[in-house]
């Protein structure tokens, strides 16, 4: 029995995988989130570039874009429901089976989007069906993320939890890179009419192949040692959601707030930036997607750096430093994101998405550590996805409204406000064992020097 961030948990250290089994677990946690985020991001890209014209025709392009972004937001409201649904079975039945079900839910919803008729073909039923599929995506991702993080961290040695927890987090930039790359490839290989006729459907239909690969990998892994110990000790709770809400409300509140700035930053740098850059600043779709691709490489590169620092000095401390940097970045939002200066915009994307990696790398492990094993799937997933509602679902919509009414710097102030809320939550969160060990080393050095 050990403690994670002040919570008594049973890691099952004697059952931790080694060698090929460990690599299989890490790959399974990575490949699943990569597929899920690929599915999620192709919708985000299409919501800006395609759906306003095909599913929400309007004389006012800005109004059509806002309607499309509203369907984008739907998934974030479905994600907590997915957390409750899949979290219940994840904490009752097991991580492995629940992760398979979450992947199927997300994958099927995505493939159906690629088959939907447009507004010109079936009228108002088209956006209604699109919204329904978007809800399915939200349900699937609501159950996916928490299970993938637990699959990695519950198989990790105590001193390597942030490093193991980094693997599912890498699925976000890899999935985004793949989603952006396939839209760039389609843009380069076909004209505008062909793209809007059927080309946009290709990424959604191609998801079926990726889901097949993900299922093959996940069906070959074992249940986590920590959950096996819960089963052996008959520690399962009857209603994990009720347990989280009644016995761990503070952890839920702190966990939601500490992930808030992470969500706001990411969806400002991706959905809002793409929409504003192509509609107001005159960048072509292809040009801006290339700029974002470079930024996403920086996103991926800073995730392992943050994990290494978090295992050495503490996950909470790593996120505090990243959040302070996000606040500073918000102050300079407008001067960097400008029309007609691709160099400045590239720097804007590199800095913003690089900071995203620094906060995203440790957030999964830190959230998991807020809850005991018996309700960790439900608790961590719910906190993460509630942060998605408050921090991401409406971020592109709010940012578009703010920028149009008060100027682009108001979007930066919006990011600064989110960073302050996250910083307050991080200061209220308990220290983790790596942070305590780091403090002990520092105290020892001072004592020796004295």
UniProtKB/TrEMBL annotation:
It is found in: Cell membrane. Residues 25-434 form the Major facilitator superfamily (MFS) profile domain. The keyword DNA repair does not apply. PROSITE patterns: MFS, SUGAR_TRANSPORT_1. GO terms for cellular component: plasma membrane. It comes from the Bacteria. The keyword Transport applies. It holds the Pfam family MFS_1. Keywords: Cell membrane, Membrane, Transmembrane, Transmembrane helix, Transport. The chain crosses the membrane at residues 25-54, 66-86, 98-116, 128-151, 163-186, 198-219, 251-276, 288-308, 320-340, 346-368, 380-399, 411-429. InterPro entries: MFS, MFS_dom, MFS_trans_sf, Sugar_transporter_CS. It is a multi-pass membrane protein. GO terms for molecular function: transmembrane transporter activity. This is MHS family MFS transporter. It comes from Luteimonas salinisoli.
């Amino acid at each position: 029995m050990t403690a994670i961030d002040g919570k008594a948990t049973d890691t099952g250290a004697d059952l931790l995988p080694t060698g090929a089994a460990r690599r299989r677990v890490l790959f399974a946690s990575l490949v699943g989130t990569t597929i899920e985020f690929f599915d999620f991001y192709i919708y985000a890209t299409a919501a800006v570039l395609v759906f306003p014209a095909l599913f929400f025709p309007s004389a006012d392009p800005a109004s059509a874009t806002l309607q499309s972004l509203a369907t984008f937001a739907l998934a974030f409201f479905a994600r907590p429901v997915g957390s409750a649904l899949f979290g219940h079975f994840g904490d009752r039945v097991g991580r492995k089976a629940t992760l398979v079900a979450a992947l199927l839910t997300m994958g099927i919803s995505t493939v159906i989007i690629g088959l939907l008729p447009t507004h010109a073909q079936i009228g108002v039923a088209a956006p209604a069906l699109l919204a329904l599929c978007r809800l399915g995506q939200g349900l699937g991702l609501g159950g996916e993320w928490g299970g993938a993080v637990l699959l990695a961290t519950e198989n990790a040695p105590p001193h390597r939890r942030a490093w193991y927890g980094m693997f599912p987090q890498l699925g976000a930039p890899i999935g985004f890179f793949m989603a952006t790359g396939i839209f760039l490839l389609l843009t380069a290989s076909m004209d505008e009419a062909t793209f809007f006729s059927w080309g946009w459907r290709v990424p959604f239909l191609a998801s079926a192949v990726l889901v097949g690969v993900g299922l093959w990998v996940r069906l070959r892994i074992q249940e986590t040692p920590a959950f096996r110990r819960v089963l052996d000790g008959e520690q399962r709770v009857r209603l994990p959601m009720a347990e989280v809400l009644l016995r761990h409300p503070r952890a839920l509140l702190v966990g939601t707030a500490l992930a808030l700035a992470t969500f706001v930053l990411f969806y400002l740098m991706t959905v809002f930036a793409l929409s504003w850059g192509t509609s107001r600043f005159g960048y072509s779709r292809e040009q801006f997607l290339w700029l974002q691709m470079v930024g996403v490489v920086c996103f991926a590169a800073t995730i392992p750096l943050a994990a290494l620092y978090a295992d050495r000095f503490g996950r909470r401390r790593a996120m505090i430093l990243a959040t302070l940097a996000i606040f500073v970045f918000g102050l300079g939002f407008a001067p960097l994101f400008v029309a007609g200066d691709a160099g400045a915009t590239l720097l804007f994307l590199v800095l913003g998405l690089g900071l995203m990696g620094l906060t995203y790398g440790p957030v999964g492990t830190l959230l998991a550590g807020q809850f005991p094993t018996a309700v960790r799937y439900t608790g961590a997933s719910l906190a993460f996805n509630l942060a998605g509602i408050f921090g991401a679902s409406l971020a592109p919509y709010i940012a578009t409204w703010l920028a149009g009414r008060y100027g682009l710097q108001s979007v930066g102030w919006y990011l600064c406000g989110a960073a302050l809320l996250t910083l307050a939550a991080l200061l209220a969160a308990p220290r983790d064992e790596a942070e305590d060990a780091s403090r002990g080393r520092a105290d020892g050095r001072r004592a020796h020097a004295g």
